[in-house]
Amino acid sequence: MGRRVSLANIPLRRLVNTALNAGDKLFALERVRARPLRIHIEVNDLCNLKCPHCPRENPAIPKNTGHIPFEAIERLAPWFRTASYVGLTGNGEPFLHPQIMDILELVVACGATPSVISNATLWKRLGIVDRLAGIGPMLLNVSIDGGTKETFEKWRLKANYEEVRENLLDLRRARERTGTPFPITTFNVCLMKDNIEEVEQIVDWGAEAGVAVINFQNMYPYVGGLEDQRVRDIDVSRRAIARARKRAEPHGIRIDWLPMSFDITDRDGTEGGSYGAMTAAEAEKRLERTGENGSHANGRVSYHCDNVWNQVHITVAGEIKFCCFWTEGALGQVLDSELGDLWNGPEWVQLRRDLKNGVKPGPCTNCHNLVERDRGCLLRTSLGELRDLAHR
After folding, report:
1. From CA 304, how far away is CA 291, in angstroms rounded?
2. pTM for the complete prediction?
3. Is residue 244 a contact partner of residue 214, using CB atoms and an 8 Å limit?
């Protein structure tokens, strides 16, 4: 039995905001009543690695421009107080930001949970392992693209397998010394042909490091010349995920899967996207409602994206966007614009209206977050948001 969810554990402002967000999503409101549940901030776009499949290797994607100023983080702080979590990542390694620990501590002080994606190479050199273990509720997502030294170092160029393993073990020991589960550590794995036969070894490594979740996501075509590494048959990916789950079950590790680069029609009736895994009954009901092209029997499609109803995205340059996948320009500047005006401004309202009416914008094509609207699944994920709050 899991721990009983107690609403008394949830700060009132966040409880109210999460409840309002649930209503916004269930009724597909275009002008929402809730403030963003998630705030994603690109803290920098500098990195000490050179991974061949990383977006940084795409010459069209900006990089090496610097760090987001602490002033921008402070300006967003009032919005942290009603948010579930604040993602602190970007097109680089967050722990290269000279004030990253100050940023993390500010987010925690505001009552939100910071979430960081890291390559886990710098913690020991910076001497921050104990400080990480003492920071409070936090999510630490580590990019791991191989279960063996050979595969890991092929795809995490300039990283050392033994060094990363020792950093993860040091963090686990620090958590055990202080008697805290934080930071809750997860693995992020880019699923490709080179590592699809190593999913069990990746799970074993996760068990050694004490991770709670392993997120597998299919390789996304950010970079040309890697088409031979993409797993194009979704059933091959399903079988690998099934093997990973079997290996993870005795360790209590949850396996998530994001079938990135597969359009919604390829994913219909399977897991992935904002709703996560569907039950067999839910998949059957969805197939009853849809035709071969994914349209409703009455001819109308209605889409949902958690990013559009839940979050804002801030680039390292301080630009405000719908999400990190959005390629059609920014809505404003965090230091010059009022976020509240944009959150229910004409562009955001129009995008919500388009999705509700079945219009799929170009940047949303092949995005794993785009799903067909289903109130049952939306209610389940909203209850999950409340559960997550109560478990912090």
Report:
1. 18
2. 0.83
3. yes
Evaluate whether 386 touches 318 at the Cβ level (below 8 Å).
no
The single residue listed with the structure tokens 């990019």 is: 143
For the chain, the first-to-last Cα distance in angstroms comes to 17
Cβ neighbour number for residue 204 with a 10 Å cutoff: 15
Specify the residue for token string 């987001």. Answer: 68
Both tokens of residue 319?
């630009």
Which tens digits make up the pLDDT trace of 261-313? Answer: 555 455 444 454 443 433 334 434 444 444 333 334 345 789 999 999 999 99
Contacts of 19 (CB under 8 A, 6+ apart): 386
Q: How many CB atoms lie within 10 A of CB 227?
A: 10
Tokens 């967003």, residue located: 76
Check if the beta carbon of residue 203 is closer than 8 Å to that of residue 247. yes
Q: What are phi and psi of 2, to 5 degrees?
A: -80, 170
In the 3-class helix/strand/coil scheme, how is 54-83 assigned residue by residue?
A: CHHHCCCCCCCCCECCHHHHHHHHHHHCCC
200-240: pLDDT as tens digits? 999 999 999 999 999 999 998 788 889 899 998 999 999 99
Predicted pLDDT of residue 296: 47
pLDDT for 301: 84
Q: CA 381 to CA 374: how far, in whole Å?
A: 11
Q: Bridge partners of 113?
A: 85
